[in-house]
Amino acid sequence: MNDAKIASKTKAQLAHFMGKVFTHFSKPSRKFIEECIYGIQASGDTKLSSIVRAIDDDDG
Fold first, then answer.
1. What's the whole-model pTM score?
2. Beta carbons of 37 and 53 less than 8 angstroms apart
3. DSSP secondary-structure letter at 25?
4. 46 contacts: CB under 8 Å, gap ≥ 6
5. Rounded to whole angstroms, how far apart are CA atoms 29 and 31?
6. Dihedral of alpha carbons 36, 41, 42, 44, sign
7. Distance (Å, whole) CA 56 – CA 24
8. Is the dihedral of CA 24, 32, 54, 43 positive or negative?
9. Is the sign of the CA dihedral 19, 58, 41, 9 positive or negative?
10. Where are the domains of the chain?
């Protein structure tokens, strides 16, 4: 599998998880948390700059 396909599948699985676990948050808050978790997972780092870089790299 190529990187884009893996990233897409990971994001879909994370969105599914977020929809089930974080039901009490608003949709924008859930999306923010989802992107932060994805950025941490993708970058392997908890620094905000690394998270943003990972999210920006994935968006194309």
1. 0.74
2. no
3. S
4. 40
5. 5
6. positive
7. 27
8. negative
9. positive
10. 3-59
Write phi, then psi, for 41 (nearest 5 degrees).
Answer: -65, -45
Helix (H) / strand (E) element for 21: namely: helix 3-21
3-state secondary structure of 29: helix
7 three-state secondary structure: helix
Query: What are 26-57's pLDDT values in tens digits?
Result: 989 888 988 899 889 888 999 999 989 988 87
Closest CA to 30 of 43, 47, 3, 38: 38
CA atoms within 13 A on the CB side of 39: 19
Distances, alpha carbon 24 to alpha carbons 11, 14, 30, 31, 44, in Å: 20, 16, 9, 13, 27
